[in-house]
Amino acid sequence: MDNSELVPVINIGLNTGRYNFDYAMEELKALSEANNMNVVETTVQNLSQPVSGTYFGTGKVEELRDIVVDNGAEIVVANDELTPSQIRNLEKVVKVPVMDRTGLILAIFANRAQSREAKLQVQLAKLQYQMPRLHTAMNQRLDQQTGTSAGGGFTNRGAGEAQIELNRRTVQRQINHVRHELKDVDKSAEVKRQQREKIQLPNVALIGYTNAGKSTIMNELIKRYGMNDDKQVMVKNMLFATLDTSVRQLQFDDSKKLLLSDTVGFVSQLPTTLVEAFKSTLYEAANADLLVQVVDYSSPNRIDMMATTKKTLADIGVPDLPMITVYNKADLTDNDFPSRAGDEIVVSAKDTASIDLLVQVIREKVFKNYVTATFLIPFEKGDVVSYLNEHASVKSTDYLENGTKIEAEVTNVDYQRFEKYVLEQ
User: Fold this and answer.
1) Fewer Cβ in 10 A, N or C end of the chain?
2) CATH code at 370-421
3) Where is the Hflx-type G domain (predicted)?
4) Could you confirm whether domain 201-367 is CATH 3.40.50.2300?
5) What count of Cα atoms within 13 Å lies in the side-chain half-sphere of residue 99?
6) Residue 103: how many CB atoms within 10 A of its CB?
């Protein structure tokens, strides 16, 4: 899309010295661009804390007004979550809508949501965001309509308070309704999860910062090992290209199988309402046998991104699970790839040797408890032979007088299940 077709915006931020400010502002620019905005100017101020009424100091707010006019900006986007009064007071001066970081992320999520579950989760987060802002929004409209005269203002304020309460009840009803619908969706998702758990396959979840290359890696694995290679996931070079968790079954050349999940990407200062809303979407990560953290190796902010991933996992209650770290996009750096140091590998998702190394490491982790055994299965137990041929890594098959002799590599669960057929070595 040409920049002339994008909404011109001014990004603003307050440097309090409490976090990596430059990184946060770069991220805000990327988020703005993901929402079809063109950042024409960035304005910052160094303060120990936000000004309670206007976020920026008075002089800086007036300077911002001139910057908006000079650049023909249509929206101001703040790096922090603003109070309703801060938004209202800023808008009075700059004369264009003001959007905070939370509102921006919610707008992106609303545009990206595809499945019914994702749409409901975003709707719930938006309603929870709007609830505390009803009072200020109503008062602002009343001020515009009636002025601030003592008589008229007082009379209408009473009517306004009644309307605010009515609006609050309406929003609360909507929240309750969405939560009820989400419960129905969760029940359906839970049935699918239970069906997957019945087949007792290892679950590997791709996690990490948004736009680190998780979907690209997943598609490369699906191309090679997918049960249906047409079921690839969307890839786009932008933050939050997809919000839905995708689960695909992979089968390797030796018949070993696993479930691979591509989860929604993380971003710093993810709104609390969205963290809460997307807990169910991230169920796959919370119940994985192995987490594969994908990191953009070409980004100078990769350490901060990894910290964001760690914090978000803690926020959504993901336990301390086995994890490998994949430094992706190494082709955009001067580093050699593919390479490995313990549980960390450096790769480029489009490089064949890189995918080979990734598969090797994943297999080491999730199939380490497999057992190699020799089974003698009676001819009348043909279903067992069929099961092993489909689910195990069969190394040899011999047909003897008293049954079928199969040497195979199986899971611990399958070994215990068919232990009565095991031949002692």
Assistant:
1) C
2) 3.30.70
3) 202-370
4) no
5) 21
6) 21
pLDDT tens per residue, range 88-133: 999 999 999 999 999 998 898 888 777 788 788 889 888 988 888 7
Q: In DSSP terms, which residues pair with 206 in a beta bridge?
A: 262, 292
Architecture of domain 7-99: 3-Layer(aba) Sandwich (3.40)
> Sign (positive/negative) of CA torsion 110, 114, 116, 118?
negative
Q: Give per-residue pLDDT as tens, 30-48.
A: 999 989 999 999 999 999 9
Closest of 376, 364, 359 to residue 424, by C-alpha: 376
Residues comprising the binding site for Mg(2+)?
A: 215, 242
Domain boundaries, the chain: 7-99, 116-140+159-193, 201-367, 370-421
Strand partners for 264:
none
Is the pTM higher than 0.85?
no
Of 72, 124, 132, nearest to 100 (Cα)?
132
Q: How many CA atoms lie within 13 A of 113 on its CB side?
A: 22
In which residue are the tokens 């049960």 written?
A: 227
Residues making up the binding site for GTP:
208-215, 240-244, 262-265, 328-331, 348-350
Assess whether the region 7-99 and the region 370-421 belong to the same CATH fold.
no
